[in-house]
Amino acid sequence: MTAPRYSGLATFMRAPIAEALEGIDIAMLGIPYDGALTNRPGARHGPREVRNQSSLMRSINHATRIDPYALCSVADVGDVAFTSAFDIEASHRQIEAFVADVAAAGALPLSCGGDHSVSLPILRALAKEPVALLHIDAHTDTWDSFQGSKFNHGAPFRRAHEEGLIDPKKTVQIGIRGAQNVSEGWDYSQSSGMRVMFIEEVRAKGIPAIVDEARAVLGNGPVYLTFDIDSIDPAFAPGTGTPEIAGLTTAEALDLIRGFRHLDYIGADVVEVSPPFDVGGITALTAATVMYEILCVLAEVRAASART
Which backbone phi and psi does 275 adopt, to 5 degrees? Predict the structure, then answer.
C-alpha cells in the first residue's frame, strides 16, 4: 500500500493477487460480463477500469477510521473466466461456481461487474435460505422477460424472489426513479412485499431516516448488498448503461453505505460501470470509492464475527 499508486499491476484497491482462496477473509473479484444488457453495452469492461481507478484508494477511512487491511486478509482473486459468453444461462452458471468456491473457502465475496444480471448467480451461490436484500439502484430490476430472455439485467431480483433466494419482506430498494413504458417492475416489487423507496422519498426524508427504516426492514439475519452505479446521478456517474437523471449524489451514496454498518453481510457487489460511456474515468473512480466503502463495512463485520 505504500508503493506509488501509479506503479505495479492494477488490482482492486492495490490488494495482493491471491494464489489460492484459503486464508482470505474478503475476496474481491471481477465479473466482466454484459451479455444480459437491454441498453448501452460496455459493462464487461467495468472490472478492469475499476481496478485501475481503485489504485487511488488508500487504507484508512477518514469518516469511520476503518482500516480494512488491518482488520482482515483482503485479496483480489481475479475474474470469472467465461467460456460461453454468448449464452446467458451458461455464463451465470460459471459465475455461480466461481462465487461458490469463494464461499466454500470461507471468504466474503465483494464483486465488481458486469451488468446487474450477475447478482442472480451470486445469490444462488450464497443464499442457503431466503436472505435480506439491500438494493441501491435507479431500477427495481424486477421486470420479467425481455426479447425472449428471463435472465436480462432488468430481471435478477424477480428471478431471485421466484427461486426463494431473497425474502421480499426483508428487501429494500433505494433510489428508484426514471419513467417507464409500463409499471410492471414497480408493481411486482410492491405487490410481493418489497419496500420500494423512490428517489423523491429519499430526498424528502433524508438519508438518516431512510437508513433507519431500511435497517428495520432488513432485520438481523443474513444480508446481501447490491449497488448499481446508476443509482448515482449521471452528473457524477455518466458511464453506465441506463442512466437516469436526478439520482443520488456521491456524498449521499457514501452516507448510505456508512449507515448500513454492522449488518450480517454474506457478500456484496457493485455493477453496471460502462467505461466506453465514461468521462475522464469519473464513473470508474466513483465505483472504486463505493467498493472501498463497502470493503470497509464488510471488514468491520468480518473482524467482529471472528472475535465472537
Answer: -55, -35
Q: 221 Cβ partners below 8 Å, 6+ apart?
A: 131, 132, 170, 264
CB 285 within 8 A of CB 57: no
Sign of CA dihedral 78, 80, 81, 86: negative
Cβ neighbours of residue 196 under 8 Å, at least 6 residues apart? 140, 173, 176, 186, 189, 190
d(CA 166, CA 164): 6
Q: Which CATH number among 3.40.800.10, 3.30.565.10, 3.40.30.10, 3.30.428.10 corresponds to the domain 12-307?
A: 3.40.800.10
Q: Is the peptide bond before 114 cis (omega within 30 degrees of 0)?
A: yes
How long, in residues, is the chain? Answer: 308
**For residues 24 and 77, is the Cβ–Cβ distance under 8 A?**
yes
Angle at the Cα of 208 from the Cα atoms of 202 and 212, rounded to 5 degrees: 95
Cβ–Cβ < 8 Å for 269, 118: yes
257: number of CA atoms within 13 Å, CB side? 31
Could you state, in order of their start, the residue ranges of all structural domains in the chain? 12-307
Give, for all 308 residues of the chain, the pLDDT tens digit.
778 888 888 999 999 999 899 999 999 999 999 999 888 999 999 999 999 999 999 999 999 999 999 999 999 999 999 999 999 999 999 999 999 999 999 999 999 999 999 999 999 999 999 999 999 999 999 999 888 889 899 999 999 999 999 999 999 999 999 999 999 999 999 999 999 999 999 999 999 999 999 999 999 999 999 999 999 999 999 999 999 999 999 999 999 999 999 999 999 999 999 999 999 999 999 999 999 999 999 999 999 988 77
Q: Contact, 11 vs 77, CB < 8 A?
A: no
